[in-house]
Automatic annotation (TrEMBL):
GO biological process, one term: antibiotic biosynthetic process
CDD domains: OAT_like (cd00610)
Entries under PROSITE patterns matching the protein: AA_TRANSFER_CLASS_3
Organism ancestry: Bacteria, Bacillati, Actinomycetota, Actinomycetes, Pseudonocardiales
Protein name, entry field: (S)-3-amino-2-methylpropionate transaminase
Catalytic activity: (S)-3-amino-2-methylpropanoate + 2-oxoglutarate = 2-methyl-3-oxopropanoate + L-glutamate; 4-aminobutanoate + 2-oxoglutarate = succinate semialdehyde + L-glutamate
Record EC number: 2.6.1.19, 2.6.1.22
Length: 417
């Protein structure tokens, strides 16, 4: 009898029968409060009726249009709709299937457009698991161990992760930008550097928001040196942070934006957005793929965008995000085991440390496991897997946040008591 490969590691033992809104129901009929949202994917909740309807209708009309052979309406309509929400000037889109593929697409475009070989990434960044995306990833050695040699031409600068350094935000930011300039002087000359790849909030790296000064420093250097600023919105886009884009919090103007996850409510779809002028620097046929821009995924994405607008999900993420962050902070105040609680919108992390600031992986893992046993599904992240993250669907209600926080308070008291 065939079995699933043991190389797949699962955060919980749950076998799901179906999902509805913020809840997953397992094969024993038990209900779980899903504060993982499929790693930030099911923003409209599980099986939102409007998304289900759009996908079902599309399945009966056309499943696979193959966009390098023929064009189809869902892709054209989605492109037009995304034009309403994309940052000004980023009006040209290419679609793929996963976040990693979007990263690959942006890398290819950046190298072709600039004729430069190198890229700079920021420590703690996660960009995916393909060779190129893993090469750009520094959120944990687990994503690249045993996989070397990775792609050459990647250089790593610090991210202003103030809690990690034990500094205030301004000091961490000054340090990060000074090290970036040092990197230009020592490892990758600006005229050999094609792009910065950066997340508005480190996701897998521990739910660490960047800040306005840091991103202004990146933008200024990008402009000065002709380097492209690629903003990876795979986890932070589509309202997750309480604004439509994560970078909206930081008054940042990207050259390329990467989209996936929350875009299509769980259907595989990703893309990159840039200006037409920039896209025109690559050549027709330089990118493609069999499944990119799948018709059903596009129909689901179109419905997802409508739901986000009609149900005011960005505002809900902002309001519920404050409730969640405040609640998680109140839980942390009662224990010395949580050193920092941070986040933006419905993307909240509690970092477990010993009183001297050493990462406490064991307690974080115990809390995540105990929460799952109590019916609250959570994930961990961070280089040491010592940050418990809460990332519920954007449709979450105040009552559901309270329900989760109540379980979280009990769980933390139990595992640290
Ligand atoms: N970029 C970011 C910021 C991500 O969070 C992820 C996935 N966690 C990816 C890229 C990779 O996306 P995928 O798993 O769809 O390849």
């Amino acid at each position: 009898m065939a079995q699933l490969s043991p190389l797949l590691k699962q955060a919980t033992p749950v076998i799901v029968d179906h999902g509805e809104g913020v809840y997953l129901y397992d094969t024993d009929g038990r209900r779980h409060l899903d504060f993982t949202a499929g790693i930030g994917v099911t923003s409209t909740g599980h099986c939102h009726p409007k998304v289900v309807r759009a996908a079902q209708e599309q399945v009966g009309k056309l499943i696979h249009g193959q966009y390098t052979t023929v064009m189809h309406q869902p892709l054209l309509r989605l492109t037009e709709k995304l034009g309403e929400v994309l940052p000004p000037g980023l009006d040209s889109l290419f679609f793929a299937n996963s976040g990693s593929e979007a990263v690959e697409a942006a890398l290819r475009l950046a190298r072709q457009a600039t004729g430069r070989p190198n890229v700079v990434v920021f420590q703690g960044g996660f960009h995916g698991r393909t060779v190129a995306a893993a090469s750009l990833t520094t959120s944990g050695t687990r994503f690249s161990a045993g996989f070397a040699p990775l792609m050459a031409g990647v250089h790593v600068a610090p991210f202003p992760y103030a809690f990690h350094y034990g500094w205030d935000e301004a000091t961490a930011t000054k340090f990060a930008l000074r090290e970036l300039d040092y990197l230009f002087a020592t490892m990758s000359a600006p005229n050999e550097t094609a792009a910065f790849f950066v997340e508005p909030v480190l996701g897998e790296g521990g739910y660490v928001p960047g800040n306005t000064e840091f991103f202004a420093g990146l933008r200024e250097r990008a402009d000065r040196h002709g380097i492209l600023l690629v903003v990876d919105e795979v986890q932070t886009g589509f309202g997750r942070t309480g604004k439509f884009w994560g970078h909206d919090h930081f008054d940042l103007r990207p050259d390329i934006v990467l989209i996936a996850k929350g875009l299509a409510s769980g259907f595989p779809l990703s893309g990159i957005a840039a200006s037409k002028d920039l896209m025109a620097k690559a050549w027709p046929g330089s990118q493609g793929g069999t499944y990119g821009g799948n018709a059903v995924s596009c129909a689901a994405a179109l419905a997802t965008l409508e739901v986000i607008q009609e149900e005011g999900l960005v505002d809900n993420a902002a309001a519920r995000g404050v409730q969640l962050l405040d609640g998680a902070r109140a839980v942390a105040e009662k224990t010395a085991a949580i050193g920092d609680v941070r986040g933006l919108g419905l993307l909240v992390g509690s970092e477990f440390t010993t009183p001297d600031g050493t990462p406490d992986t064991a307690t974080a893992q115990a809390a995540q496991k105990a929460a799952a046993e109590r019916g609250l599904l959570l994930l961990t992240c961070g280089a040491y897997m010592n940050v418990v993250r809460m990332i519920p669907p954007l449709v979450v209600t105040a009552e559901q946040i309270d329900e989760a926080l109540e379980i979280w308070a009990d769980v933390v008291a139990t595992v640290t008591g």
